[in-house]
Amino acid sequence: MDLGLSCEASYSPEFITQGEANSLFDHLTETLDFTNHTFKLGTGEVVSVNFGKHMFMDQSLFDEDKLPAQVWGKTSVWSDQVRLIKEKVELFTGHQFQVCVCIYYPDGTSGVGFHSDFVAFGDTNYIPSLSLGEEREFVLRNKLNGKETSIELANGSLVTMGNKCQELYEHALPENPKYKNARINLTFRKYGN
């Protein structure tokens, strides 16, 4: 479903089945450690946040330490389960992704304010994002006029932010205590140009 914005952006509410989404959520929460919520910025500053993070990546990036854990947080090569989802996302989008940023939000008291994804390690012109677990509100805000578009992200849904989305819009996952359960976001990213 096209979101009708001044950029390429779409929402697929049932990208994967509820069974697939629940199985992947369980795999991630059972195999990853989301308890250490501190990481070191490129400036050397240590930051503490109210969510957990893990990065999956291609074997070559991991072997060459292209995204060092002391800067980016916990990292590993793709698990089999995440690799299967990555391949499905690649087939759906027609784009190849070398990195997946996995963020765990324990409940509605954790979220992220308005921002645009900056070019930290690769092209941000096309970023798909898979939601698992608790349904959460996701908001896109036009940088010029402030108009907001809100979507409830369902378990197993995929938001795709494409051409001009990072340039013209900011996005947020607002904190809201009405959400009582955990959510995981898998954002697929490109490495390099």
Automatic annotation (TrEMBL):
InterPro entries xref list = AlkB-like (IPR027450), AlkB-like_sf (IPR037151), ALKBH3 (IPR032854), Oxoglu/Fe-dep_dioxygenase_dom (IPR005123)
In the record, what terms sit under GO molecular function?
A: dioxygenase activity
This chain's source organism reads Algoriphagus machipongonensis
Give the GO terms filed under biological process for this record.
DNA alkylation repair
Residue ranges annotated for the Fe2OG dioxygenase domain, each copy included:
96-192
What is the protein's given name?
DNA repair protein
Q: Which domain of life is it from?
A: Bacteria
